[in-house]
Amino acid sequence: MVFPVTEQMVNFPRQQEDFVSLSEREREVLECIARGLSSKQCALQLGIAPRTVERHVENLRNKLNARNKPHLVAKALVGGHI
Q1: Which residue ranges form the domains of the chain, and what is each CATH number?
Q2: Given this model, what pLDDT does residue 20 score?
Q3: N or C: which end of the chain has fewer CB within 10 A?
Q4: Burial 10-28 (b: 16+ CB within 10 A, else e)
Q5: How far is CA 13 from each of CA 2, 7, 16, 26, 69, rounded to the nearest angstrom?
Q6: How buried is 51 (Cβ within 10 angstroms: 0-12 exposed, 13-18 middle, 19+ buried)?
């Protein structure tokens, strides 16, 4: 089941996230997270270390001001990053 995500649900100021640029690797990691993969599964798929995936997730959370992974995915969807 897919639920619609609205700006009110993710509660963020659009102006700040409108100027966020993500690297190609950050987008790949974000797509893994959105598909529900663990850091280890994502690392295997991308050919990098799980700790590197976790570091990318941390950077993404900081860039998008997200509280956790689900919030990160919601904000990325609303912001058009994935």
Answers
A1: 7-78 (1.10.10.10)
A2: 82
A3: N
A4: bebeeeebeeeebeeebeb
A5: 24, 9, 6, 21, 18
A6: exposed
What pTM did the predictor assign? 0.76
How far is Cα 39 from Cα 21, in angstroms, rounded to an integer?
A: 22
How many other C-beta atoms lie within 10 A of the C-beta of residue 60? 24
Q: What amino acid is encoded at 76 in this protein?
A: A
Q: How far is CA 81 from the centre of its chain?
A: 8
Alpha carbon dihedral 53, 10, 6, 17, in 10-degree steps, equals: -70
Helices assigned H by DSSP within 1-82: 7-10, 14-17, 24-34, 39-46, 50-64, 69-78
